[in-house]
Specification:
The chain has two domains: 70 residues; 70 residues, Roll (Chitinase A, domain 3). 40% of the residues lie in helices and 24% in strands. A hairpin with a 4-residue loop joins β1 and β2. It is elongated and about 65 Å long. The model has no long low-confidence stretch (mean pLDDT 90).
Length: 160
């Protein structure tokens, strides 16, 4: 699987999400400042609620902009078995039940999913429990995590 293609798909998806969010934030801002939404009494909170929504969307837009910048500047490294899995690694994991998943270890955008040539790829970060457990590992390594009281075991099938 081509990591550069995955990186491009992630940037495209984040850019699309940012455009949608910016339009939604503009709509919320317009609702917050529209003359019909001026509070007539202390129970009339439509303008205030729209203002909170616009503020939250603006914060999220800033986070997405930061993630786009980090992915644009991310240097894709070839996998070195001596060093193991590092940032920009593409990892194929298999769970105990035999289900597999493709993961891209990125600097931000945890949970983002893109459709790659070989299937869906999920972005994780080194800050996540799974990302931390994968760092330095290689093909054949077994990873065991306890999340929410549930034990999860994985095997690293391949790392690129």
């Amino acid at each position: 699987m081509d990591k550069a293609r995955i990186q491009h798909l992630i940037i495209d998806t984040l850019t699309h999400d940012l455009e949608l969010l910016q339009r939604a934030a503009q709509t919320a801002y317009e609702a917050a400042t529209h003359e019909e939404n001026v509070a007539e009494n202390k129970y009339d909170t439509l303008g205030l609620e729209a203002s909170y929504l616009a503020t939250g969307q603006a914060r999220r837009a800033a986070e997405i902009k930061q993630a786009i910048g980090l992915f644009q500047n991310l240097v894709l490294r070839e996998h070195d078995p001596a060093i193991g899995i590092q940032l920009s690694a593409l990892v194929h994991l298999e769970a105990e039940n035999g289900s597999g998943q493709l993961l891209f270890l990125g600097p931000e955008a945890a949970g983002l999913k893109v459709q790659g040539e070989d299937g869906e790829v999920t972005v994780i970060t080194p800050r996540s429990p799974l990302g931390q457990a994968l760092l330095g590992k290689g093909a054949g390594a077994e990873i065991t995590l306890v999340i929410g009281g549930t034990r999860q075991c994985y095997e690293v099938i391949a790392a690129h």
